[in-house]
């Protein structure tokens, strides 16, 4: 007899969703995470008395509860959660800002259509055709990799518009450099432009509590500060885990959401780990500002995706941080979020993991400060001036992401090569989450759910 | 269980899966999935609930038997008679 029927490595969103599915149908399940709280990439921390969220800018795939086929509602049904227990707030509206002009979008796809027609009068019909092609494409059918860049170019034939559309979709969900798999592009286009963006009315902590309560309510067990050092393997099967504290647990099946490089390391999988290390990582600067400065800065935008050049290439920069493109997030600029004493602005920019890694600790601290200043300065062009008014400021680098989530090289979107069927060389060890293929908050949860449904409910 | 009881159990399971489900207009002889606008993943949950509650194993090639409410009742009647 094994200690558990299923052990899940990782209490991030994919691990929690997988755990709820398994426990709901009576599997004796254990979730372990090396961190002291749940959430993984999408967690929270206390900073100078303020609760700051680590991942969340905006959740994609907005849908009202009545749109049953929408991924968000399917997700809630699968976890037996009620949309009524999860009040949400829609974005005010967001913007893609390039030197040549800006496109405004919100949770109404007709707005983006009108904006494209305004800025690119010759492309209106082509953009409409592109949307139709995206609606007709099945991104879940197994098919060889296809270039999203050439697909979009074949419709629009307008590089500037193409760059403008790719910036938010790549920034919010692409593990590859330069190009994007067509299937991933289709998923992201629907998630961001057709469905839209929202956030929980409360904070990420409340959402994570809801998930953990549901999991424990179904009888699941969760252990924090439990770092898996080794997946125990005998012949063609995995039979348990050994933790860093020396204890071990056996299980009939295992599910790893730790990402491919980490799973390869702890399982002794004979495959080159570097192939599965993503190169895209980011720095983020979080500034807290007093309510009084609201009036001098942009108030009608939730997100501003910006590029200071009409050329845009999505790749690891040659410098610690590239402030010339990124995303600015106003976490309070959602419908009906009450104003508090302070409000945050977050600026996310591409960053180079190897360059940050090479610094000694003193230079690391200095460079962090310099990068914050650069990020704020670059963003002020779009937000209005706020650098002088900052009360508190914090930032993270690719090294921070790696330390807290074990995502190799701080690659938020994981491996450029995904494992869609979740299988490994061992018949009862599976992969879910970022490296299975679905990205983002809704995506990673659907990943956990679909892998459990497919392999682990029998 | 008799046919009515089985039908009630099915509605209860569906209501549990989908809080937005509207039973007022439900036609027992038309496909459930179309009428309730459900996904195949939801459909799997009906099977999983039946298994959880009555230890009933429904093989995948018999899922078509569960297409409509009345075909479900027909299929389940002999299996749940003694419960
Ligand atoms: C700055 C930032 C902003 C983001 N913004 C958004 C957004 O606005 N909207 C959106 O939808 N998505 C956003 N995302 C993406 C989203 O957070 C992720 O896609 C999602 O959370 C991934 O979940 P996951 O479960 O696959 O992985 P993870 O969250 O990485 O979970 C893996 C877990 O495994 C644990 N683990 C790893 N190795 C071990 C080990 N050896 N032993 C024990 N435990 C281990 C880790 O501690 C971690 O908790 C953002 C991410 C970042 C970093």
Outline the structure in words.
The complex is a heterodimer of chains A (458) and B (83). The mean pLDDT of chain A is 95. Chain A is 34% helix and 21% strand. Chain A has three domains: 4-54 and 202-276 and 417-456, FAD/NAD(P)-binding domain (3-Layer(bba) Sandwich); 94-195, no CATH class; 279-405, no CATH class. Chain A has helices spanning 13-24, 71-78, 109-119, 124-136, 148-156, 159-171, 182-195, 204-217, 260-267, 353-357, 361-383, 398-405, 440-456, and strands spanning 4-9, 29-32, 44-47, 50-53, 88-90, 94-98, 101-105, 198-200, 221-223, 228-234, 237-243, 248-256, 281-290, 303-307, 325-329, 342-351, 392-396, 429-431. In chain A, a hairpin with a 2-residue loop joins strand 6 and strand 7 (101-105). By secondary structure, chain A is an alpha/beta fold. In chain A, the strands form four sheets. In chain A, strands 1, 2, 9, 10, 11, 12 and 18 form a seven-stranded mixed β-sheet that branches. Chain A contains 13 helices and 18 strands. Chain B is globular. In chain B, helix 1 crosses helix 3 (40-54) and helix 1 crosses helix 4. Chain B has helices spanning 3-17, 32-36, 40-54, 69-80. Chain B has a single domain (3-18, 27-80), classed as ACP-like (Non-ribosomal Peptide Synthetase Peptidyl Carrier Protein, Chain A, Orthogonal Bundle), CATH 1.10.1200. The termini of chain B are close together. Chain B has 83 residues and is an all-alpha fold. The complex binds flavin-adenine dinucleotide.
């Amino acid at each position: 007899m094994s200690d558990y029927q299923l052990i899940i490595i990782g209490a991030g969103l994919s691990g929690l969703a997988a755990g709820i599915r398994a426990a709901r149908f009576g599997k004796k399940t254990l979730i372990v995470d090396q961190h002291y709280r749940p959430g993984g990439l999408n967690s929270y921390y206390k900073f100078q008395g303020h609760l700051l969220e680590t991942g969340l800018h905006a959740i994609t795939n907005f849908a009202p509860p009545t749109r049953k086929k929408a991924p968000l509602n399917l997700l809630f049904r699968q976890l037996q959660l009620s949309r009524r227990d999860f009040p949400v707030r829609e974005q005010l509206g967001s913007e893609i800002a390039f030197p040549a002009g800006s496109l405004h979008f919100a949770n109404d796809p007709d707005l983006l259509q009108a904006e494209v027609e305004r800025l690119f009068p010759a492309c209106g019909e082509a953009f409409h055709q592109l949307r139709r092609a995206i609606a007709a494409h099945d991104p879940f059918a197994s098919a060889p990799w296809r270039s999203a860049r050439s697909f979009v170019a074949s419709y629009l034939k307008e590089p500037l518009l193409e760059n403008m559309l790719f910036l938010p979709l790549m920034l919010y969900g692409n593990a590859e450099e330069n190009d994007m798999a067509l299937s991933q592009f289709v998923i992201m286009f629907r998630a961001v432009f057709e469905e839209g963006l929202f956030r929980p009315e409360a904070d990420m902590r409340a959402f994570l509590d809801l998930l953990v309560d549901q999991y424990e309510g179904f009888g699941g067990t969760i252990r924090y500060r439990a770092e898996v050092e080794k997946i125990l393997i005998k012949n063609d099967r995995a039979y348990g885990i050994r933790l860093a504290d020396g204890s071990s647990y056996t299980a009939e099946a295992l599910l790893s959401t730790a990402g491919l490089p980490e799973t390869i390391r702890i399982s002794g999988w004979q495959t080159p780990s570097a192939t599965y290390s993503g190169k895209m990582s980011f720095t983020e600067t979080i500034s807290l500002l007093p309510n009084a400065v609201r009036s001098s800065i942009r108030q009608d935008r939730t997100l501003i995706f910006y590029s200071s050049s009409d050329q845009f290439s999505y790749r690891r920069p040659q410098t610690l941080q590239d402030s010339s493109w990124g995303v600015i997030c106003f976490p309070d600029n959602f419908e009906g979020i009450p104003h508090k004493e302070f409000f945050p602005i977050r600026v996310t920019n591409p960053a180079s993991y190897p360059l940050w890694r090479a610094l000694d600790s003193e230079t690391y601290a200095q460079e962090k400060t310099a990068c914050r200043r650069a990020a704020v300065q670059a963003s002020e062009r779009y937000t209005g001036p706020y650098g002088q008014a900052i009360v508190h400021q914090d930032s993270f680098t690719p090294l921070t992401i790696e330390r807290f989530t074990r995502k190799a090289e701080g690659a938020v979107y994981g491996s450029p090569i995904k494992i869609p069927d979740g299988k490994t060389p061992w018949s009862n060890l599976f992969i879910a989450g970022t490296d299975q293929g679905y990205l983002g908050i809704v995506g990673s949860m659907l990943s956990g759910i679909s892998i459990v449904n497919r392999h682990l409910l029998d | 269980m008799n046919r009515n009881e089985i039908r009630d159990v099915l509605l209860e399971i569906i209501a549990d899966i989908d809080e937005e489900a509207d039973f007022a207009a439900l036609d027992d002889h038309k496909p459930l999935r179309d009428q309730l606008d459900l996904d195949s993943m939801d459909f799997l949950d009906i099977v999983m609930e039946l298994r959880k509650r009555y230890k009933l194993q429904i093989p995948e090639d018999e899922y078509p038997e569960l297409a409509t409410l009345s075909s479900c009742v027909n299929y389940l009647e002999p299996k749940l008679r003694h419960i």
